[in-house]
Write a structure and sequence with these properties.
two-stranded parallel sheet, 9 helices, about 40% helix, binds magnesium ion, binds adenosine-5'-triphosphate, about 20% strand, 6-stranded parallel sheet
């Protein structure tokens, strides 16, 4: 049996994709779902004492979700340079290959029922770039489409989020990628942030399905578990 996956996209880098993915994975596993993590390409990996590159996002998520797994199994492309994967692979070699990403994803699929997949950067993230119009170029959206996944969008709850969310959702609609819901991160229950939620729900016609406060250790979605599970494709 191949598993079902859900793609966790951020409105940008450093927005809390890894943090929220960790909470989501913990939520699923605590509710009895055999779920794991996957990330196609990670940049900014740290070297351990044996000089191995450690994909920090995977370590963080596995720790939050209390899951033991080989991080190299969950992250096929790991770069040391903390820049977009296209530039990291120009510097270090080893450019991303879509088929290899799919092969790695399928291997993980055979072992688990559900995969929460974290994106790199925001939606306009070059994963591989060989030059204008080159057929080997890969943008993040190509990976989402190649794996046939739907998206949940992680955004900061605060000032500026209406613009970031609406532009991202419009871009996704333009590429025929379905957005199941939005999660507001670093949420403080205050007037502007609650207005942000109402505004993006009205402007995008997509619901905010969870709000994550700073340092939350669990996620309490505003949708039930069956609804959440139905987002996995
Ligand atoms: N709700 C939160 N409470 C406390 N800390 C948070 C929260 N959300 C994010 N952080 C912290 O903010 C930093 C950035 O978050 P995170 O690494 O999850 O972002 P990201 O979108 O995954 O970044 P990248 O693009 O590098 O993958 C991290 O140090 C993380 O621990
Ligand atoms: Mg991350």
């Amino acid at each position: 049996m191949m598993s079902k996956g859900l793609f966790v996209l951020g409105t940008g880098t450093d927005i809390g994709k890894t943090y929220v993915t960790g909470l989501l994975l913990k939520y699923l596993r605590d509710n009895g779902y055999d779920a794991t993590y996957f990330k196609a390409a990670l940049s900014g990996a740290i070297r351990d004492e044996n000089d191995n590159l450690i994909p920090g996002d995977a370590v963080e998520v596995l720790t939050m979700a209390d899951l033991e797994e080989d991080t190299d199994f969950l992250v096929p492309y790991i770069y040391e340079t903390a820049v977009s994967p296209h530039l990291a692979s120009h510097i270090e070699g080893n450019p991303v290959d879509l088929e290899k990403v799919k092969e790695s994803y399928d291997k993980v699929s055979k072992k688990y029922d559900y995969i929460v997949m974290e994106g790199s950067g925001g939606i306009v993230c070059p994963i591989r770039y060989e030059g204008k119009g080159d057929e080997n170029n890969i943008m993040l959206e190509d990976i989402i489409k190649y794996l046939g996944l739907d998206v949940i969008l992680i955004a900061d709850a605060g000032l500026g989020t209406i613009n970031s969310i609406v532009t991202t959702v419009e871009y996704l609609k333009n590429r025929n990628i379905h957005v199941c819901g939005i999660i507001m991160n670093n949420y403080k229950d205050e007037l502007m942030e609650n207005d942000n939620i109402k505004m993006v729900e009205d402007l995008c016609d997509v619901d905010v399905i969870a709000k994550v406060y700073q340092n939350d250790t669990i996620i309490q979605p505003d949708v039930d578990t069956e609804e959440l599970i139905s987002y996995f494709k």
